[in-house]
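Re: beginner question about structure tokens

> Can someone show what the tokenized structure looks like for a real chain? I only ever see the sequence side.

Sure, here's an example I had lying around. Input first:
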Amino acid sequence: MARFRTAVTATSVLVFLTVLLGVSTKAAGAGLACNARWPLCDGGFLNLFPATVPSAFEWLHRVVAGVTGLAILGTAALAWYDGERRAIRYATLLGLALTPVQVYLGRQTVTVFSDPILAAHYWTAMGIFGSFAVATTLAWRDALTPTVARRSLLVAAVLVPVQVAVGPLVVATYTPPVQALHYAVILLLFAAAYVGAAAGWKTFGPEKYAVALALALTPVLVSLGRSVFQSTSLIPVYEAVAAVMFLALAGAAVASRRGQMKSASPA
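And the corresponding structure tokens:
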């Protein structure tokens, strides 16, 4: 278990970094520097001599994505070889199954670069991250306590307004670094909410429904966050979803704290 925990945690971190690097690459338009060529670019053999900074950035993203793909393959194989719990095995298998799809979509972002392809590429990346976030949380589940659950929910609640604050609704200049920060907060928000749910599910009372609601609304919030700078009519909906998520996560954290104190008090 210790070996697999290390492997799945490291792979999740790699996936996290790859997603952020991909967001930055897309935001900077670096994929276009390769002139619709894939897997080649403009720097000769293995692109060792990139002609421009954008093409070097695009190639860096490809290299990191390749390393991450190998880590995904190795971690999924290790989960089955070590006989990890079925939920863990299938979570890593889902991430592995999505990886070649992501590679193909990555190619399409260079050769086609259309909005549907970019959206599919992004959501597939989110699926891979989600599957490994789940696998990592389940691998560490024995070490997760009700206190961890409460604190994770509080972190997730705080990250809801933070992701609004660093998103296109508030930030005037939505530069590549700002976009990377925005999506980093989104990924951490999902991870914190899921850790809170997994750590406290067996001890939660009615607050489990609030946590489930927040998790269900996460992709909705992400989708709206990507769309509000194109359609201002979605801003009220985006704000409403963010408010509901914040209240659900904060309320669940407070309720779980009260439930923990009540169960610990002498009869």
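Each token stands for a local structural state, so reading them left to right follows the chain. DSSP finds eight helices and no strands in the chain.
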